[in-house]
Amino acid sequence: MTTYTCSTTDCDMTVTGLTCGHCGSELEHDVLQKDDGSTVGVSKCPKGCGKIKSPMCCGADMAIS
Q: Could you tell me which of 56, 2, 50 has the C-alpha nearest to residue 26?
């Protein structure tokens, strides 16, 4: 099960077990590479229903733990 943790030092928020609203599958972490070479973390449905940008907390992307 994928767990995201707040990347700031003064917060201990975590998110575990995001699921797809269409099929109920657990979303999986993935990384997209943008045209400029930078990357963006996403959570995607393993059955191909779609993907979302990975969660944010305290104004920053949450990290995979």
A: 2
